[in-house]
Write a structure and sequence with these properties.
There is one protein chain. The chain has helices at 2-23, 33-47, 49-52, 56-68, 74-110, 118-147, 151-175, 179-211. The protein is globular, with a radius of gyration of 19 Å. The chain is built from 8 helices and no strands. It has 212 residues and is mainly alpha-helical. The two termini are 22 Å apart.
Amino acid sequence: MIISNSIISIMSASIIGLLLIFIVPLYLNYLDYEAYALIGISIVLNSFSQILDLGFHQIIMRRTSLYFSGKYNEVDLRCLFRTIEILLLLITLILFILVLNYFEVITSNLLNAEFLDMNSLGTSIILISILLILKSFYGIYRGGIQGFEEFKWISYISLFFNILRYPGGLLLLYYWPDVNKFFTFQLIISLVEIIFFRSKYLSFLKNDVENN
């Protein structure tokens, strides 16, 4: 079981990595270099999203694992889960409000755009910020499912959503070469993904309670 889970996880991560390597550079065929740079910034920020969750991913994974092994109470786990969601929501809302208040400073001073107008650039920054927030919530739901040792499920579903995200993004740019349409598409994919992961975690928890 451990070997099987490890192989599937490695294969899934490898395929996702290959999608990034081979698909994302093709975006440059449909976008100017400034718009393409914004996509690069978004990908880099998403890769550091685990910093934003302040270790909540590890906490929920550890507590779920303890619950799964019969060493933690189901009521306490649900309470912890809700508390983490509320705390993360408050933290990310504060950060988002800061972005809204200072996005003009970010666009004019930190990003020296020559071809993108300020309104389009500001919209991109806001969409990237929302994507980063969604990614932080994805982390805690993923951690919870990892606590149930559902590594195969995570690998398959993550691969599915990343196929939608990267090749799907390329197809979108082929017909609508607009960076903010691209970010909106990514936002929809990420929103569906975290809703799916959250519902699946709660489903695993409910099924485990019923089985016991």
